[in-house]
Amino acid sequence: MNRYLLAGAAAAALALGAGAANAQAKFDVKVGGDAYFEAGYVDQDVDSGLRSTEFRNRMRINIIPSAKADNGLEYGARMRLRANSGASNTRTTDADRAYIFAQGTFGQVRMGVSNSFNDETYVTASMDYLKLGAYDDVTAWINLPSSTAGTVTGNSILNPSIAPDANSTKIVYFSPRMAGLQLGASYTPRNDSSNTDISRSKPTGTLAGTSNGIYQDMVEVGANYNNTFGGVTVKASAGYMWGRAVDDVVGSNYKDLNAWQLGANVGYAGFTLGGSYIDYGKSGQNERTGVFTETTRNWTVGAQYTTGPIVVGANYKNGKDAGSLGTTGDRELQVYEIGVGYTVAPGLTLQAQYDYFDLDNDASAADDKGNVVLVRSILAF
């Protein structure tokens, strides 16, 4: 029922906005994007077979055709092309965003492969010394022992967003912002289906399975607030997402998706202080005899100071999941981080960060701790 209501609301908003739309409108095409080059040094206890240094880079290009009708309706599309490593380092290019949009006094509707509402608007600690909002990216450098929890497809143990469907085809609605408050919702038929793919099959599991991160009929609702009072900036967000896991399997109990998020941020005179908390519960885990399930959650708190072209900050991140579902206990990752950024010129930034991490794994042989140093240059255009 929820998906029909959301789809109907999106269709009604588009119909109301269409009115006397001018079919001869001229499209403007904007091209933009971002790129980074990053160098890293890692010193960790569990380093057998691992090198200490590595480089990586990425480039993304946004192509946005848009037009505006006589009645004020704005409409268009967006595609984000991304240079990827690909399987076996084949250096492929993919499109991780591709959607149609329409916006007006009713708000904005997106249809296609897009961020969900909360993934686009969630609030957490300010970390402008990190690249392009990649708050959890340090996990890519520390070679975490793999977790078989499989709780939420595509989400890191430190990810502050509740969206496991960012690269799936969906409908998203953003309301107009009124007195600082914005509401929104999204519907995703299946979180492993995107672009031209048609997947009408229901997610399946087995009696022997421990988890399944594929969900259907995912619905997300949320709200965010952004306002300024006497020089004090206040930001906050809250969101909830639910969806169905695999069909019933006799003797098994795959838990449906249930996730929620809260975040807040306060800024004054260049200083900001904030944090966020997210909880996935036991989403996707098979709560049956012989499987050791645990709640997945993470939280972050941090502060930063910005003056002119310089930003400095520090934060603490704590993520916990079930680790190996064949072993009792959970997996916890703690990260202490400091960083600095310097804007050399408009669109060109240099950054450096240091992270100390401590991993406590239910498989005790996989406990680990160490240090990560990263330096990077970022281009945004």
TrEMBL record:
<protein>
    <submittedName>
        <fullName>Major outer membrane protein OmaA</fullName>
    </submittedName>
</protein>
<keyword id="KW-0732">Signal</keyword>
<dbReference type="InterPro" id="IPR023614">
    <property type="entry name" value="Porin_dom_sf"/>
</dbReference>
<dbReference type="InterPro" id="IPR033900">
    <property type="entry name" value="Gram_neg_porin_domain"/>
</dbReference>
<dbReference type="GO" id="GO:0016020">
    <property type="term" value="C:membrane"/>
</dbReference>
<feature type="region of interest" description="Disordered">
    <location>
        <begin position="185"/>
        <end position="206"/>
    </location>
</feature>
<dbReference type="Pfam" id="PF13609">
    <property type="entry name" value="Porin_4"/>
</dbReference>
<dbReference type="GO" id="GO:0015288">
    <property type="term" value="F:porin activity"/>
</dbReference>
<feature type="domain" description="Porin">
    <location>
        <begin position="10"/>
        <end position="361"/>
    </location>
</feature>
<feature type="compositionally biased region" description="Polar residues">
    <location>
        <begin position="188"/>
        <end position="206"/>
    </location>
</feature>
<feature type="signal peptide">
    <location>
        <begin position="1"/>
        <end position="23"/>
    </location>
</feature>
